[in-house]
Amino acid sequence: MTRPCNKRSAAATTTSINGSGKVKRPKEQRGHQDKYTEEASSSSGKGKRVGEAETHSLYDLLGVSSDATPREITAAYRRRALVCHPDKVRQRERTKIEGEDGGKGMKVKYDDSAQVLSVEEATKHFQRLQAAYAVLSDPKKRERYDRTGETGEDLLEGKSYEEAYRYYREKFPEVTQEAIDQFKAKYLNSEEEKEDILDFVNKFRGDLTLFFDFIPLSEPSDWKRYKSILSLLLEEKKVKRTAALEETIRSFDMIAEKFTKKTKKEEKEAAKGGKKKMDTSSLALAILGNMSKREEAGNRFLSSLEEKYGKKKTRK
């Protein structure tokens, strides 16, 4: 699958849709874009940027092949919308600034070639996901796009985030516990999950410190299973055996414990009603991490996004 922001190119540009609605199509479909490091470039003039690279199509933006079924397209869109929301990006930015492992003084090493999305860029990228989905989810629009490379409309160009968000809610009324559990059942232990873990290890050069911040639906209590997957990747020589990987895989249980403490602290701060209010980053972690209050968080998740970002108008 991100799989956002998620998957697979670290350096990404965008596909342009001009005023007539023409899209530069690729001769061959490429792999998934990197959901952790996609660059959502802003549009200029009447041109509309909705993809990830000059030669990438709407299919690449969603991370699916050109022969994907409607069900696969919907699943890919929903997954990226859940994973690559602005607050999740803000959580990563905050964690990157802290960048230390439990007081041990070990700094997290990032791939310098990657460009991490800002909250503003993530908001724009979320709109582009909707723009691509609006075409590919409609049989007639998709057929025309496949045949001519044209979308036939400007989609969400010039729309505010609130309008784009409303469109999303019309497609998916709310993020329910049932929907999350259904996706989780398909994702855990899948090839897609293994691919996400492989991408993470390569992106962070083997440093697992931020594993639970980035891997979708990861739970610290499941650290032994993740460690087995990581060990298998090493045995199969799919990842490079770096000093950082060997060190952090040995202390992987401590990384899981630290993440658990951080999440519990955020929950306590919210319960006490203190100065530090539980933001949607924490809510997202609760949803994706199977916390005790996941059901309530699931109902509030998208509403919180609307409250935080709906009043902000998109710059023209």
UniProtKB/TrEMBL annotation:
MF terms in GO: heat shock protein binding
Coiled-coil annotated residue ranges, if any: none
Domain J positions: 57-149
Region (Disordered): 1-53
Pfam family membership, one: DnaJ
Cross-referenced SUPFAM superfamilies: Chaperone J-domain
CDD domains: DnaJ (cd06257)
Gene Ontology cellular component annotations, sorted alphabetically: cytoplasm; nucleus
UniProt feature, compositional bias: Basic and acidic residues: 26-38
SMART domains the UniProt entry points to: DnaJ
InterPro entries for the chain: DnaJ_domain, DnaJ_domain_CS, HTH_DNAJC9, J_dom_sf, J_domain-containing_protein
Protein name, per record: DnaJ domain-containing protein
